[in-house]
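User: Modeling request: complex.
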Amino acid sequence: MNEDKPAVCCRNVTKIYDTGGQKVTALNGINLDIALGELMMLVGPSGCGKTTLISIIAGILDQDSGSCELFGENLLTMSSQRKLQFRAQNIGFVFQAFNLLPALNAAENVSVPLIINGVKRVTAEKKAIEVLEKVGLGARWRSLPAQLSGGQQQRVAIARALVHNPRLIVCDEPTSALDHTSGMNIMNLFKAVALQHDRALVVVTHDARIFEFADRIAEMDDGHVVQVQTNQPLVAQRH
Amino acid sequence: MNQIAIKMLMGDKGKYLGIVLGLTFASFVMTQQPAIFLGLMARSYSFISDTGLPDVWVMDPKVQFIDDIKPLQETQLYRVRGISGVEWAMPLYKGLLKARLSNGTFQTCNVIGLDDTTLIGGPPIMLEGSLEDLRRSDGIIVDIDGATDKLAKISDQPGAAKIPLKVGDNLELNDRRAVVVGISKVTRTFQSQPVVYTTYSRAKNYAPRERKLLSFVLVKAKPGQNLQELTRRIRDNTGLVAYTNEEFKTVTYEYFLHNTGIPINFGVSVLLGFIVGAAIAGQTFYSFTLENLKQFGVLKAMGTSNWVLLRMILLQALLVETLGYGLGVGLTALFGYAMRNTILAFKFPWQLLIFTGAGVSIICALAALISILKVIRLEPAIVFKS
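Assistant: Request completed. Predicted assembly structure:
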């Protein structure tokens, strides 16, 4: 992999959904670069294509045309097996609804990406507890998701996204299910433990309260990236 | 990932129990109903099984099963004895006669008349007295089930239990005196009538006057004699039908199979059990997968391959299958044990375990297959849909 290249490099990415014979253009020639060490937020109205774009960036959806390179590798040309492996090693996920496995305790949930990568369960759970300590939940590693508050569940989800040390973390509305304080805490945590010089973060959000945490913000509308700017104008607009 | 699969399965205890209970029910019905069916079928030839000494049964060609008596002339016995390869041939009377009980009511009994000299064809187990006691005047041996139930004496006290027939008690068979000289244990017959053993000559006295009274000729082959050859020789020389024990059992079994509604009735029960079990277990397992679809999507997004997900679902199916199957056949075994001393027919051969295992496996395989297809077709991008 080429270290000089951006973490994510999308060129003319187009995605069209066929919904019962009707074609819907979700992405229409997206060009976007995300650098290593950068926290990029994707913002825009519902249906503008944010979720489709992070799905393509995360390698869980294929674009119809254009290219999307992650760390210099084109996911579209990878074999499905290689793509799975690439995803398992390089990408961490944080979801709006947390998507923790309800039957597993916090440590088991966090250890899932390591187990997928072939790490033995005992080793994976030890490592998971270490990461849970980093997010302030070391004492709650035995708790089931249902026994944790929304903010705590999102911390577990962050720990799960970090545990295998991925180079890209994609987050879908990570604060929208949380109250203001919890949301701020989560974003501070992100900044503190997730963002590193060799890792990029892409956050899809509607939540204007967290714009200030972004390095850059890409505004999307109707399948296009309308503009990419630093957080200052949008934060100022909010105030 | 196997442990994650198991935890996912057991995480929702209600669903998990639903799947296991559905399969337990299916497994129970698919084992218990055929076990009763096999028990009933085995009763159809139980008298042949109990009469172990002869190798060949000779009878009228029109006989279709063991209770279908078409009497022979006594001279046929001597013709059979004259055929080469026959070690010995003995007469056997088998017929339904009415016994008059002490309270004046009548009970139909299955009366077996054994050769007066050798008493060949007697009951397999004697509980009281001995077979030789049949030589005593008016002696009969009664089976224990008959003695304690249908032939038992009614107590003078209202509501009191029946008094079992015992050695020394008297009966009337066709208005003739019969004295109980022994109690035997025999396998229950299809009609569940009391079985009364006596000598051949005495049985002829009990039976209504008829020109022919010989029901079967029991034949022992000489050592080394090929039984198929012997039965062919008997047929060719006498014009009668001769079956080996196993052949006669099959003839009887097949008669009941083809001429009664028993197989179809039990077949419907088994099919119903399969359908209900498949519906409950299959539907619950499928809805369990549907509810966990997002979780499978998360695993898929994180890099879990379809093969691993398939393995996880198969493991879940295998686990509930093993539990449901084990509980189902265990309950059937308990049921059989609890009913061992009742009139209920029950036979639980090892082949039935394979039959039920296959049935439960098909249910689980179908449920797992539908779930697997759903998970394989699942777009991991589902994880971003709230």
